[in-house]
Amino acid sequence: MLILGIESSCDETAAAVVEDCTKLRSDVIASQAMEHRLYGGVVPELASRRHCENILPTVEQALSDAGVTADELDGIAVTYTPGLIGALLVGVSFAKGLALSAGKPLIPVHHITGHIAANYIAHPELAPPYLCLVVSGGHTMLCEVKSHTEFLILGTTRDDAAGECFDKCARVLGYPYPGGVQIDRAAQEGDPAKYPLPRPRVTGSELDFSFSGLKTAVINTVHHAGQLREPVDAPSMAAALQTTVAQILTEKTELAAQRTGYRTIAMAGGVSANSGLRRTMEAMCKKHGYTLYAPPLSLCGDNAAMIACQGSYNFLAGIRADSSLNAYATGTAIGEMKAQ
Ligand code: KG4
Ligand code: ZN
Question: What's the CA gap between 82 and 112, in Å, rounded?
């Protein structure tokens, strides 16, 4: 079974072909990150324009690297939610056109489920059910992966996502976009105890997250130092932020594991590349004897291999779209991800 995956939800135009769900035949990513760096973050209109330019050569490259033609595919999977609407529409429109012209099934994929599926490519032995911590630029959630195509959200962020918090704090500390990886690098040189940061409490649901207070605390400390013309020790602030975020994410995951009884835990999304988070999650899982899975760094960020992989499972489960498929900017309540 050969599935082409197409991803264009943010600032990466990507296409990939997988065979039998998890075998990567090709994986092409045209990243716009360096261009958006000039503006300190993703400029939606610019992203849409670049997707328009990149989509055809990226898909052609993915097919040629895999040594297949569109005729040989079993289906075409595409990210339809969540993301930047103009960016998503480029991938969705292209996939609809290709599916129609090649006479192939069109398979809708929720981007977050794609991030989770990145784990199957690296660890084909991982099988649902298990608990997953999803941490990306736009989402932070704990979910039960009940099957390859059924997900139950146990907790989510009330405000900012963990990645957003890293990116905004990185910007105020003077690091370029995308800031998460810069915080990770800088944190290695810093003293996490130098700046005590608040631990936000979320009332109501203990498995929900809140990162806006932490972000504001970092921004206020930096601004206050600026007003006093005092230097900020950016690596130490980065280390304090990373340590705090990693502790919060790990403790909530530990609580979710205790409540649900899962002993297999996965991590997914761009922030799952964070070295501090990986360390605390590994230590927590070791303490309880849980098995921890995380994608390789190359599959943590946005890519189409994960979309093709999840698309393959959706295809096997009979999930299809027709030419009325639309793109949706926010999507946790739509389709296959259900709130508890
Ligand atoms: O999953 P992703 O590529 O895109 C979304 O779906 O949002 O996640 C991007 C996020 C950004 O906020 C980026 O700064 C963060 O992942 N990120 C990291 C690291 N690498 C990427 N955050 C912390 N540490 C990293 N090493
Ligand atoms: Zn993503």
Answer: 8
